[in-house]
Amino acid sequence: MFVIDPELRFPQCRLVLTHDQLLNELRAQIAAKKFSQKRLADHLSIAPARVTEILKGGRRIQSQEMPRLAQWLGLSDESEAQRQFVPEGAMPVAAVPLLGEVPGGNWREAIRNTHHFIQAPEPNLPRFAYALKVVGDSMDKIVKDGATIIVDPEDQDLFDKWLYVVRNGEGEVTFKQYREKPARLVPCSANPDHKVIPITDRDYEIVGRVVLITMRPDQAALD
């Protein structure tokens, strides 16, 4: 687990954005009509046709274009001096898309919002990793309401005692611990109202494994 203090750690670290994260945010903002392709092309000093190729996946965003594009999309508020100076031993961070909320209590429909990113102190997270906010108290022995979990959707192999995000046949999503013999989802909670969920009598889909938990000190499950 990691405790993140954005005021102390992040201003000293380089923001690491992947090509796919920038491309996904670019497509989302273009779809939302926040700006025209022509305006973006002028900002990047490229032909408008190149922007079209980027959006269609026919051209990669060039390395020299990535910082300017991140600034244009509002994903970076670093000054030029901050980008050029990284203190020795500073921990790089990765920008991870925050897709919404996952219930830590009763089943409820997951809320998705692809316009927000968080900074995680792990520059080498899985390529499709994304973040979800925990809502509820059914996992409060591990984290409290409001903490953030980062999910690897490509890691769906079940192992005893690991943490997963799971979706049922109605499309509702929850965050729980998986236990074997019998296969079940276990609430790690001090609240007795939360019950073990058997997963043998219904259709369930593993959304992904929880690979990182980030939180403020008041979101940690401390006695």
From TrEMBL:
<protein>
    <submittedName>
        <fullName>XRE family transcriptional regulator</fullName>
    </submittedName>
</protein>
<dbReference type="InterPro" id="IPR015927">
    <property type="entry name" value="Peptidase_S24_S26A/B/C"/>
</dbReference>
<dbReference type="InterPro" id="IPR036286">
    <property type="entry name" value="LexA/Signal_pep-like_sf"/>
</dbReference>
<keyword id="KW-0238">DNA-binding</keyword>
<keyword id="KW-0805">Transcription regulation</keyword>
<dbReference type="Pfam" id="PF00717">
    <property type="entry name" value="Peptidase_S24"/>
</dbReference>
<dbReference type="InterPro" id="IPR039418">
    <property type="entry name" value="LexA-like"/>
</dbReference>
<keyword id="KW-0804">Transcription</keyword>
<dbReference type="InterPro" id="IPR001387">
    <property type="entry name" value="Cro/C1-type_HTH"/>
</dbReference>
<feature type="domain" description="Peptidase S24/S26A/S26B/S26C">
    <location>
        <begin position="97"/>
        <end position="211"/>
    </location>
</feature>
<dbReference type="InterPro" id="IPR010982">
    <property type="entry name" value="Lambda_DNA-bd_dom_sf"/>
</dbReference>
